[in-house]
Fold these 2 entries.
Entry 1:
Amino acid sequence: MGTAGHIDHGKSTLVEALTGTHPDRLEEEKRRGITIDLGFAFLDHAGVRFGFVDVPGHERFVRNMLAGVGGIDLVLLVVAADESVMPQTREHFEICRLLGIPRGVVALTKSDAADAETVSLAHLETEELVRRSFLEGAPIVAVSAKTGAGLEELKEALVRVAESCPARDTAGAFRLPIDRSFAIKGFGTVVTGTLVSGSLRAEDEAEILPDGMRVRVRGLQSGGRKIEMARAGQRTAVNLAGVEHAAVARGMTLVPPGRFSATTRIHARVELLGTARAMRRRFRAHLFQGSAETIAVVRILDAANEERAIGPGETRFAELRTAAPVFVLPGDRFVLRQYSPVVTMGGGVVLDAAPTRRVRDASVLRRRLETLAVGDPAAMLEALLADSPRGLTFSHVGRRTGWSEGEVKEAAQTLAGAGKARVVAGGGGEAGVIAPAEAYAALLARMREDVEGYHRANPLAEGISKEELRIRVARMAGPAMFRAALGELAAAGQLTIAGDTVKRAGREISLAPEEARAKEQIEQAFAQAGLTVPSLKEVLEKLPVEAARAQKIVQILLREQVLVRVAAELVFHRAALGKVRELLAGYKKQHGERMSVPAFKELTGITRKYAIPLLEYLDRERVTRRQGDERVIL
Ligand SMILES: Nc1nc2c(ncn2[C@@H]2O[C@H](COP(=O)(O)OP(=O)(O)O)[C@@H](O)[C@H]2O)c(=O)[nH]1
Ligand SMILES: [Mg+2]
């Protein structure tokens, strides 16, 4: 529960009257008697535990107020009965409305200091303020912290409203926007905040965004009590290992490690308050989200008029570019304050935390953002995919939407089931990838064409290398999608993968008549040479075929294993090598298994230049084994 309201209207005093704790913590606050920063207190009443975040009312400290109200479920709007609605009553109320705080209670404080007529005037003005808002019809209770009048009634109203509060999502990823970081002697770093989703336990690993520091949870407290687990909605103090308190600041967020990242570009729906002035297509503003604050350049995406792109009370789609990285997810509410003078001008909701850079047709972009705004997961995923023909990994989708792995899979399967997308990898250790159905079909067609094209351009090559094919379609597919597509084409019997080479299934190399003749000539030359092989160069020079093509014919003969490459420049006909094996077998029978190098030379009639590489080849082929200077015939 967060307080809201004008300075000196009795917020802090009321929190003390309700909880027994005065929320002003700082020396300066006590001295000056005003709230500067957030204060905290707890109340247990009728089985409900309330965590209070008391905020400063002074207009200079609205930024601190904003850091505190991000995670609250209920607002306690405080209006002094003797002064009624004042500027920060309005501003705080608007902020709560912009942040989508769903419900609350109004306290008309200092009822002892006002006569009945004044109290009922304040009552009327407050009703007027909250008309047609989330607070319409909320209990309005006159109280006095001084006399205690109305406090019981207020507590009852609080309990009733609290009981109608839906539980927060404790199953999802934990997310703790940090509002304080300090050190406690003997414990080390402690950060505090309102846990807005998930649950957090001691020993959990965590990451602090946007900086990405990895930390471990040592222990947890809520309301001064040690707890084993913090649940969404709780005020939480976390003792952290692995980070200095000075490295952590208000505005950072504690999240599970490796799951999310910060962003500097956001697509959002933006709304201006009725009291704001009209803005141009691009303007600077202070952006507040969670406990974070930064400067953003807001660009209205669907503006008809450059000068008056968004007027008071209007809502538009916009792109926000932030000066500092922030961690936001779709659905997050934020507040915008004018750049100068700093007054609250509006706010909005995040639709896409990592929009692609592709420049799009304004109407397409508009439809896409409308879909994201509705929030149906499969439709959202389809909209995200429309911008990503190369497919999206499941982890990227999770990062961008905040969905769990299961939720991503479910949305992906729904889309795949409707024939709109293909889940092209996933399962095992591999991250899933989802691609638009059309883009994936286009990729398969393109890969088949590229392989065909390669065969046409290189009739003597067996096929295209995988890597070359991957590079050719890199604009259409990332590595995972490419692997999946290749696997699918092979499984469908359309392409054949042999080692590193991809070819059309069933493709045989067909030679032109003069190439077939050259092939025969080459084979002949090597067959006749036996073990006294000519160098490759000599053979090729004699052929009536151009050098490049002859090289390819040699490649074919090597692939067919008619020729065998023994060393870089040493190629034998397979019959010659067969002969060597026979000779060695005969030698073994007659002289036993040991043989010297000179004996090998004599046996085969081969020159020294060739004998050593040939023996090394035979060693590799496990026909012989080297032992000292001799060979063992196996
Ligand atoms: N007479 C009267 N004075 C009050 C009451 N509540 C608060 N005050 C006084 O109003 C002043 C401002 O109160 P404070 O709680 O600091 O206001 P905040 O700025 O809204 O937090 C203090 O001097 C309080 O003593 C009340 O119920 N009756
Ligand atoms: Mg105060």
Note: The mean pLDDT is 91.
Entry 2:
Amino acid sequence: MRVTWSAGTTLTFRLDPEDEITGQASDEYPIKLATNSCSIGGVPGDAHPDLYAVASWTIVAPWTRRRITFDRAVSAELAQALHDGWGIEAGPVGAQPRRPGARLAISYSGGADSVAAATIFPEAPFVHFRRVAHPRVPNRWPHYRSDVLAKLAARTGRELSTVTSDLEYTLAEPRPGYPEHHAVAAGALLLADRLDLGGLGFGYEMGSRWLGGGRYLWRFTPDNPMWAPHGRWGRLFAAAGVHIVLPVGGVSEAVTMRLALGSPLREQVRWCLRGTDGPCRNCGKCLYKELIQAAVERRPLDTPITADRPVARKYLKKPPYGGQEMIQYGLARVPGIENTLFAPALDYFDVSEESTSWLDRCYPPALEEIPERWRAQAAAFMEENVGLMTEPEVRRVESWGSA
Ligand SMILES: [Zn+2]
């Protein structure tokens, strides 16, 4: 793979003979390449070469098989992190490593998880990724309202950098999206020198970090390759002086929902990518989040979605479900759930408030892996607003997915 940045903001990459246009993201999800260029706006025209290298890698990693050649020399440390993590030869080598900056920024999407992360660090600036059209790839997903999300981010009153990018259109399949989850940080990486960043906070919660949630494996994942500090991505970001920080990595989506709805940013919370004046209430994400919100607010489910809709059909089938721990939490807590589209799922679980109460507290090892500079603030917040898991609750996390 050969990567070139022109004007500091347009990335072009050329595949070597051994590279392929099909690949897998780090969570093993199969993806396919559409085009070999993209741009990032709202960033300075120069940054440390290691920042360019990591930003590139978030976009080209799935296609690269053996080596990557950058258009400027990177540090030996950065090349080593690529070699250790992926077995990739990276060069040319010759730059001094970047020293971590002093500040933590939040990679801010506006969803409940990232609002919760932001609430823990009220002084942290935001970097918001906004999708824009690609000059050569048609937009087949026009209902994605990135403009609405960007406006909401601007209303938070925080120091805000909005990064615009078409990098999601480098994917042909499954649809426009990040080649690696970390590509959401490409702009933040290129801003790291200007913002003096030493860490970047993501809204990934306990399900994503520790329970193999979403589209990953449904088991306890202490060595999660994407988000563990000692994983390959954690070490790569650290080599560029921008530590991955997960302020809400120890709490469930029930907790992030509760924190977000109680946050000063409450009015700007938006997890739905479709609605303009509010969430659309009709997509799969709205349904899933409504279950969690109803559970947190101890009220009946309020959704226009009926059981015959495609987004509801997965709950007629056997688990596992994405975010299964939250489905169980909702089944145990939402009044009248047996009369809703979630009723079939009740047959698969024997859940109670007691058996799901571990999802109301913080998993302490998640705090221990926050870099020391920011750990005390996150820990104090969790102790005051959430509470830490007991030993038996910790075991619920660590036995997740084993029979
Ligand atoms: Zn929606």
Note: The pocket of zinc ion is lined by residues 272, 274-275, 279-280, 282-283, 285-286 (CB under 6 Å).
